[in-house]
Amino acid sequence: MESLEFVKRKTLTSTDVDIQLGFFECLSEHQQSELKKYTEQVVLYKGSHIYKKGDQDKFIYFIQKGSVKQYTLSTTGKEVIKNILYPDNLVGEEVFSKEGIRNDYAKVIDPEVILVKIHVDDLRGLVQRYWEVNEAFIGLLTKKLKRTQQRVAGLIVDDARKRIIDFLKYNAVHKGRKVGMEMLIKHSMTQQDIANYTGTSRQTVTSILNDLRKTNKIYFKRNSILIRDIASLA
């Protein structure tokens, strides 16, 4: 019997759906056309894995729509979220360094996610042929590394409240929508997800969010957070 994840996976060729990625914008029309020859779009739904630890696929994925989490499991089985990734990010890039086996999990957390996948050998060939592709790819890697470094520094020096507030601000910038002077974040993360990402507990997340709501800095429901004034959020 097919797994639920396989049933919910839909693959589309690049001629079926328009590929819209910031990664493409710096490329010439010819380069974009060349790149599209080697790519496919994959539509996945909430709860589906892009890959799991131990998988041996050789694809790199660019996120066109939706949110993805990369995570690992502790020795006690606790989920530790390494990254929350939004559109114009990439996932699975470790295969570019010739690692043969996935060392973490990548999972869809929004109702629908659209990915653009390319085999690592095809991307490696395009990077070698076109400087613009090489530069754009390095730019994505650098952006992701910078964000990871910022998170690690925060886990070391910041208290739980600041880490959670920084998480809210980061999501406001990358996923939020302005509503007057306020910022609305629509999301599909649980408070346990936020705890796993910020290195706190679910009880701590609940306590801090409730405190921010009591002081009228935010208002939140199950799948949305409204930040009253992002400049004064502290």
Account of the 3D structure:
The protein is of the alpha+beta class and 234 residues long. It contains 8 helices and 13 strands. The chain has helices spanning 4-7, 22-25, 29-36, 120-129, 131-157, 160-175, 191-198, 202-214; strands at 10-13, 39-45, 49-51, 59-65, 68-73, 79-85, 90-91, 105-108, 112-119, 176-179, 182-186, 218-221, 224-227. The protein has a 5-stranded antiparallel beta sheet with strand order 1-2-9-4-7. The protein has a 4-stranded antiparallel beta sheet with strand order 3-8-5-6. It has a 4-stranded antiparallel beta sheet with strand order 10-11-13-12. Helix 7 crosses helix 8. The longest helix has 27 residues, at 131-157. Residues 11-17 have low confidence and may be disordered.
Output the helix-strand order. Answer: HEHHEEEEEEEEHHHEEHHEE
Instruction: Write down the overall geometry.
Output: globular
**Residue share in β-strands:** 25-35%
If helices are DSSP runs of H or I spanning 4 or more residues, what is the number of helices?
Answer: 8
Largest sheet, strands/sense/barrel = 5 strands, antiparallel
Average pLDDT taken over every residue:
86
Distance between the ends: 51 Å
* Number of DSSP-assigned strands: 13
Radius of gyration: 19 Å
Largest sheet: spatial strand order: 1-2-9-4-7
- Uncertain runs with pLDDT below 50, 5 residues or more? 11-17
Oligomer: single chain
The computed structural class is alpha+beta
Helix content estimate: 25-40%
Give the SSE map.
Elements: H1 4-7, E1 10-13, H2 22-25, H3 29-36, E2 39-45, E3 49-51, E4 59-65, E5 68-73, E6 79-85, E7 90-91, E8 105-108, E9 112-119, H4 120-129, H5 131-157, H6 160-175, E10 176-179, E11 182-186, H7 191-198, H8 202-214, E12 218-221, E13 224-227
Antiparallel strand pairs: 1-2, 2-9, 3-8, 4-7, 4-9, 5-6, 5-8, 10-11, 11-13, 12-13
Helix pairs in contact: 4-5, 7-8
